[in-house]
């Protein structure tokens, strides 16, 4: 990057904010301008798990202490049968904590965004809200962003960090690439956890049912709030994979969520199942998310590069979405820093794409594979699944057989070791 260059970043989710921070850290003369569609900082809610490979990068951004002060650092995964039997218990990230010094963090999205936004503010990076990009042009060694309110901004390069339905992708980089529904949807919420419940629900809990997987995870440092999520197969709305159809389905799912969840736990007995039922009963706000993924495709065109979900949204079942966005950003920063004056942005961005694509394909395949464990099954199928987990846990080779996304090589990976 030459002195005094400028970047336009479209989207101020985790990818956009972290990209601004990392690029600015590497080049104090870079000017960044963030443009966000929403009127103010908001998120889809819930709480996300950040894996060791992502936590390592958040530490390099100087945010580790602030994030761990907000989120839960519980490091155990417990798999339960709906009848309350503990089928397996193991370190959530295997040996990654010992080997890398970084573990797993479950944090409310609002807290993650607060920490990132605070850091962006400290760096005086402007965020322009309520801005809808309608056109992108390249002219005279600049890229121009044209917004629906008639304003235009120009820069040396542009980053599309605007999520799975990216306008930067559909307007300019790869217009034909559209998200695909995976057949799975999530339902869930965050509820306060009583003092007595905290002792039982102290780490990531996975409960197997015939109709999907029920997850519970404390998501604050004090463990006084828990995220619950039900991940299961949900058919496409009759009108297809369109917004209106999903809105009708969302209303139905939200209206009946207590019935759906309680029905899943109908065979549940004992302290664990009763606690799950209590959590559902006390839920006031519930979210419903159809899970989409992006087919592979182009990330870069000219002076424009897609990052994070805009480039490669994957199902959340490997818990790697935020970490993948962070890894993209760290590679981009290094590629730009080492770029000679004669290397075009186009060539630099293609290099980022080449470095990142094999890893993204690997992690995306893992997340799809993990999703299959959440599919519908018969009573016999559920019993067989429970037996496999229990037996594997007894034999201590649990992690290789049925591992809910725990893949040590992905967790220990350090993107800064990648040759650029
Ligand atoms: C149910 C669910 C659970 C998940 N759980 C996890 C988890 O446990 N761990 C994990 O790592 N990941 C998880 N993910 C994935 C994770 O949320 C994403 O990978 C991550 O948010 C990607 O960040 P991003 O900044 O690329 O995109 P986003 O978070 O989607 O942010 C995009 C931003 O761009 C804005 N925007 C959109 N369009 C425009 C536009 N036209 N102009 C300007 N701005 C625009 C949006 O308003 C938003 O602020 C989960 C996802 C879902 C749906």
TrEMBL record:
Q: Name one GO molecular function term.
A: FAD binding
First and last residue of the signal peptide: none
Name of the featured protein: FAD-binding domain-containing protein
FAD-binding domain segment(s): 7-365
Which SUPFAM superfamilies does the protein's record reference? FAD/NAD(P)-binding domain (SSF51905)
Alphabetically ordered keywords of this record: FAD, Flavoprotein, Monooxygenase, Oxidoreductase
What organism is recorded for this protein? Clonostachys chloroleuca
What the record says about family reads: Belongs to the paxM FAD-dependent monooxygenase family.
Q: Name one Pfam family in it.
A: FAD_binding_3
Give yes or no: UniProt keyword Transport. no
Gene3D superfamilies in the cross-refs:
FAD/NAD(P)-binding domain
């Amino acid at each position: 990057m030459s002195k005094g260059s400028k970047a336009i970043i479209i989207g101020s989710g985790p990818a956009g904010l972290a990209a601004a921070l990392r690029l600015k850290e590497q080049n104090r003369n870079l000017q960044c301008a963030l443009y966000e569609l929403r009127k103010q900082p908001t998120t889809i809610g819930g709480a996300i798990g950040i894996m060791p490979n992502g936590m390592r990068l958040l530490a390099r951004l100087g945010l580790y202490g602030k994030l761990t002060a907000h989120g839960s650092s519980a490091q155990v995964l417990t798999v339960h049968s709906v009848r309350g039997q503990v089928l397996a218990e193991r370190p959530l990230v295997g040996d990654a904590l010992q080997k890398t010094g970084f573990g797993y963090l479950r944090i409310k999205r609002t807290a993650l965004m607060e920490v990132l936004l605070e850091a962006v503010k400290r760096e005086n990076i402007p965020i322009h809200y309520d801005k809808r990009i309608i056109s992108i042009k390249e002219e005279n060694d600049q890229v121009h962003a044209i917004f629906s309110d008639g304003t235009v901004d120009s820069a040396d390069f542009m980053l599309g960090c605007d999520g799975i339905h990216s306008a930067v992708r559909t307007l300019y980089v790869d217009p034909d690439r559209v998200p695909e529904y995976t057949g799975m949807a999530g339902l869930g919420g965050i509820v306060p956890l009583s003092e007595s419940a905290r002792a039982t629900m102290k780490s990531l809990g996975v409960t197997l049912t015939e109709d999907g997987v029920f997850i519970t995870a404390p998501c604050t440092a004090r463990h006084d709030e828990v995220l619950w999520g039900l991940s299961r197969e949900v058919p496409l709305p009759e009108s297809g994979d369109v917004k209106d159809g999903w809105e009708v389905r969302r209303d139905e799912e939200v209206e009946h969520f207590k019935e759906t969840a309680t029905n899943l736990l109908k065979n549940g007995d004992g302290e664990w199942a009763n606690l799950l039922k209590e959590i559902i009963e006390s839920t006031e706000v519930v979210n419903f998310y159809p899970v989409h993924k992006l087919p592979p495709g182009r990330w870069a065109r000219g002076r424009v590069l897609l990052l994070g979900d805009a480039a490669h949204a994957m199902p959340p079942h490997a818990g790697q979405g935020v970490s993948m966005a962070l890894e993209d950003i760290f590679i981009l920063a290094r590629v730009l820093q080492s770029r000679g004056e004669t290397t075009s942005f186009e060539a630099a961005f293609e290099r980022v794409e080449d470095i990142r694509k094999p890893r993204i394909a690997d992690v995306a395949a893992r997340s799809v594979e993990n999703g299959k464990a959440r599919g519908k099954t018969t009573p016999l199928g559920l019993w067989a699944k429970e037996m496999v987990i229990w037996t594997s846990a007894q034999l201590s080779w649990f992690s290789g057989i049925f591992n809910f996304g725990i893949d040590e090589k992905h967790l220990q990976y350090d993107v800064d070791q990648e040759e650029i």
